[in-house]
Design a protein that fits this description.
single chain; about 625 residues; Rossmann fold; BirA Bifunctional Protein, domain 2; 15 helices; 24 strands; about 25% helix
Length: about 625
């Protein structure tokens, strides 16, 4: 390991590390050799370092590190900067600026998987780890400052000066005097994966034996085709599904139906609000020219009458006219229930066999801690004799209970119980977004809840239906589970976005077939708050779901909360003005105030163009 030490006062910290096996030290200070030599024991420490094979450099500016090391000499595995300070009575603003320049400079000489250690006196960092904690404006805001250079805080622990052999802090007000380090903290920063800048993505699907392509909604670009439920995946949602199906196979013969599930759903879903689904405009893979049509070209993919469908809008989509086959409406599947019902209606359905369907589903929703625009659903379908449906439900529940118990042996440090709650016992206001949407799809008999506290989390639903197509003597039982919510509860993952992170440190925590208690690698991420106010178009019902969806899209899911702060109606004109407060925060990436300011500007532009609001 190549270790770089910055801002050494008397080189006592560097001397304590000297001689560590497998470590190559480069110890530096800001002052000249002559200035440092006057400090107590500095000359002795420098001699010890040099005799131990360490490199000692003087007059090194921590904000310009690449000037001191050639490209071949960079790539440090660890950079230490203990108790940085501008000197004398400099205030918090100047010291924030010092840290900002230091982090940018460190990024230029640090190895890709390297660490930056910054020790600060108690209260300076401005994180909840400081006790007592200073007010934010009076701290050095170290996490937010580091985010500007692409770093996240991955660990923080006490700086125990008394355990460091020979260490003596110095430099109080630029003098050879010590200062108090009781309660000091060592902050360990690592590189963040960059914020996504997703380019438009198209998907090809087959509809009615014809290939068509569609543009994936921008908010879903980084979530489509991630393969979390592939057989060799180690993702927690796949581990949950594998354990569930393994336990259920002990009680039922299973048939997997994943391979035949369409990504698009045709038509409107009864009971589901139109604004809660992702509607998809389709375009043929190739549109033949008039000459090609006259020449008898038939290999082009066309929906309906070509002449009536040929025009394109300003975005390049086919303009669909009434009567054209392309006028059929399609949406990204918001649920697998319709696919499960279709299997039952086709009649090729063996009573007593448990049919398993799984895959990602897509729903527009308001921004809340557990509302997901995409999640992985698994649906179990079984036809049983009339009068035995309750026995089937209890068998399903028992198998689920066994699988949850097995999974939490390696994951949860707390007891997790699974229970059924009758739908009639809960009010709509008590349901999470997942459960509320399920109630829109069709009647729900039971909610499946995982309980870690008195409230619990609804992670699934159960339904029964009589189907004359199968047999008048049979009842079909449907059980739907949100695999993402199950994984979050069992692994104590506080934010659904973490399940979709591209940072490899997430999946590294989960060996194949095992769940573990999740350990965050981004601690105390900073929050940024912005307000936006506007006039609503006259006579229009404001589409709040669309408003939230635009916020998700322009911020790459960095908006964690949207609150209505004020609603005002002008007496003279009757115009309505709304004021919302947006809170930006990342769970896995560095997010700076400059990046958030850019997102806010783009958000204002998009809602003006797409929702026709008048900004104030």
């Amino acid at each position: 390991r190549r270790v770089l030490l910055l801002g050494e006062g008397n080189f006592s910290f560097a001397a304590s590390l000297c001689g560590a096996a497998g470590t190559q030290l480069v110890a530096t200070c800001y002052e000249s050799h002559e200035e440092v030599s006057e400090r107590q024991r500095a000359a002795e420490n420098i001699q010890r370092l040099r005799e131990g094979g360490a490199e000692v450099l003087f007059s090194v500016d921590c904000t310009k590190l690449k000037d001191y090391f050639s490209p071949e000499e960079r790539g440090f595995d660890c950079i230490y900067f203990n108790f940085p300070h501008c000197g004398r009575k400099s205030g918090v603003v100047k010291n924030r600026e010092l840290l900002a320049h230091f982090f940018h400079s460190s990024a230029e000489v640090l190895a890709q998987d390297g660490e930056v250690h910054v020790a600060l006196c108690n209260g300076q960092g401005g994180t909840p780890a400081d006790q007592p904690r200073r007010e934010w404006h009076n701290s050095w805001q170290v996490v937010a400052v580091a985010a500007g250079a692409g770093f996240i805080l991955s660990d923080v622990h006490p700086f125990q000066a008394e355990t460091i052999h020979g260490y003596k802090c110095t430099g109080y007000r630029s003098q050879d005097k010590s200062f108090r380090v009781e309660g000091a903290l060592n902050h360990i920063f690592t590189r963040s994966t960059p914020l996504l800048s997703c380019q438009p993505v198209s998907c090809e699907v087959e509809l009615e034996s014809q290939k068509v392509s569609f543009q994936v909604p921008q908010v879903l670009v980084d979530k489509i085709n991630r393969g979390f439920l592939e057989p060799h995946s180690t993702h927690p949602v796949q581990t949950v599904k594998e354990k569930l199906t393994a336990e259920l196979s002990q009680a039922f013969p299973l048939q997997n139906r994943d391979s035949c599930l369409p990504l698009l759903h045709q038509g409107h879903l009864n009971g589901v609000c139109h604004s809660n689904v992702f509607w998809i405009p389709l375009r043929p893979e190739k549109i033949p020219s008039t000459e090609e049509m006259s020449d008898g070209v038939t290999n082009a993919v066309v929906f309906g009458n070509v002449d009536s469908c040929r025009d394109r809008d300003k975005n390049g989509w086919m303009k669909v006219q009434e009567g054209c086959h392309m006028a059929k409406k399609y949406c990204l599947r918001p649920s697998l229930l319709a696919d499960a019902q279709a299997i039952v209606q086709r009649g090729a359905f063996l009573p007593g066999t448990l049919h398993v369907l799984s895959g990602p589903v897509f729903r527009k929703s308001l921004i809340t801690p557990c509302s997901m625009p995409v999640f992985h659903e698994v649906v179990f379908v079984c036809a049983v004799n009339r009068g035995t449906e309750n026995s089937c439900i209890q068998s399903l529940l028992k198998s689920m209970e066994s699988s949850i118990h097995a999974l939490q042996q390696t994951a949860s440090s707390f007891q997790v119980k699974i229970n059924l709650k009758e739908a009639t016992s809960l009010e709509i206001a008590e349901l999470n977004d997942f459960a509320a949407f399920e109630c829109q799809l069709s009647e729900v008999q039971y909610f499946i809840c995982l309980e870690t506290d008195p409230a619990g989390t609804c992670v699934g639903v159960m339904r029964t239906a009589h189907s004359q197509l199968v047999s008048s003597e049979l009842v079909v039982v449907f059980a739907s589970l949100n695999l993402d919510l199950v994984a979050m509860v069992l692994c104590a993952i506080p934010d659904w976005r973490m399940l979709w992170t591209s940072d490899t440190r997430f999946l590294q925590q989960f060996p194949r077939g095992e769940l573990r208690l999740f350990q965050s690698f981004s601690l105390y991420p900073p929050c940024y708050v912005h307000d936006v106010s506007f006039w609503v178009p006259d006579g229009d019902q404001f589409d709040e779901v669309a408003f939230h969806t635009i916020a998700r899209e322009v911020s790459a899911e960095m908006v964690v909360s949207i609150q209505l702060m004020d609603s005002f109606q002008q007496a003279e004109s009757g115009r309505q003005s709304l004021c919302y407060r947006l809170t930006f925060q990342s769970c896995d990436k560095a997010l700076s105030c400059q990046q958030v300011a850019g997102m806010q500007l783009l958000f204002r532009k998009e809602i003006h163009q797409r929702l026709a609001v008048t900004l104030r």
